[in-house]
């Protein structure tokens, strides 16, 4: 039952990713399940007794074939693909191969019955090493070698990113190899007992089931993330096609009126409010369009370049990679970056803005510009003072320090330090 469950999982992985390694794992587990079903479980349930040595030989050979398929899975490159086609056709092809292979194993077991005549029971530990049957010992040793080599190859090779199933398979292969060695060393007097080898085989399947559970949980988590991201992008498209377009029209018309009537302070305030509302809508659209696990450096860089490009300023990026922050902190840093770049270009007439992200003794974000600057002690006349207050409040909510350095005609530096 465990082998069938894991075979279904491997089949699904192959159909999803098209890796040949997953297909070989599927074959190996299906052959293991079919061998136990056809050559052990069914004969026990039907009370078949006359040709038990042939059936036991077939079961042992099926185990060797299963180990060989898993060794092929560990040997093939993880970049080698075998694209899936129609589900029904693929499933029929796999089952056909397994049926033909099982019939061949049964015939081989029947033909080699004399070689394995001492195998008269269905218990696994019957195939012990002190019966004097060299063929049994050799075959058990070959199976153990296959499993051991599979474990070594999976341990030294690098599987696809975020794929832990092959690591669990390596653990299971190690346990299977130890179980076969235990069977070789088990005395004939203990052949009817449950031995260490049986517990090792049970532990191997338990390890694979644990890996399968983790794989399924990760799959459903990815599925949920994809659904959430798709819904967020749908909302972003609706905002872009609706609210953002209307705000862009209001901002454009208010700018025309402000230029036509430059003496009107109300029109200037209206233009500023419209521009800020448009910026907020664009920030919201950008936030909804981003993946939840996007790297911090990439998110900040894209935000800075988008604002700088739209306002006509050059943006230089000096961003440290591998910075890990939670989603809320990352969003606050992005908002501060967008606000700082906007203020530098729109209110400071900056032609160049530099954005730095450092990860030494905490995370530090700096936004520097070559604009006109201002006197930080006199903010009442600044149209961007609300943006400065917003940046400071966001930094305080994160538990970060906020520093603003500026001098007239010397540019401005906005610095946020996270402990």
Outline:
This protein has helices spanning 2-17, 20-46, 52-75, 87-111, 134-156, 165-185, 196-260, 265-289, 296-311, 327-346, 385-397; strands spanning 314-319, 352-359, 363-369, 401-406, 412-418. With 419 residues, it is of the alpha+beta class. Strand 4 and strand 5 form a beta hairpin.
C-alpha-based Rg, rounded: 34 Å
Number of domains: 2
Mean pLDDT: 84
* H/I helix tally: 11
SSE pattern: HHHHHHHHHEHEEHEE
> Based on helices, strands and strand pairing, what is the structural class?
alpha+beta
- What are the low-pLDDT stretches, counting only 5+ consecutive residues below 50? none
Q: What is the number of E strands?
A: 5
Strand arrangement within the widest β-sheet reads 1-2-3-5-4
Assign an overall shape: elongated
Portion in beta strands: 5-15%
End-to-end Cα distance, whole Å, is 52 Å
* Sheet with the most strands, sense and barrel status: 5 strands, mixed
Estimate the helix proportion, in percent. 55-70%
Word description of this protein:
The chain is an alpha+beta fold and 419 residues long. It has two domains: 192 residues, no CATH class; 126 residues, Histidine kinase-like ATPase, C-terminal domain (Heat Shock Protein 90, 2-Layer Sandwich), CATH 3.30.565. Helix content is 66%, strand content 8%. The chain contains eleven helices and five strands. Strands 1-2-3-5-4 form a five-stranded mixed sheet, with helices on one face. α1 packs parallel to α7, α3 packs across α4 and α3 runs parallel beside α5. It is elongated and about 110 Å long.
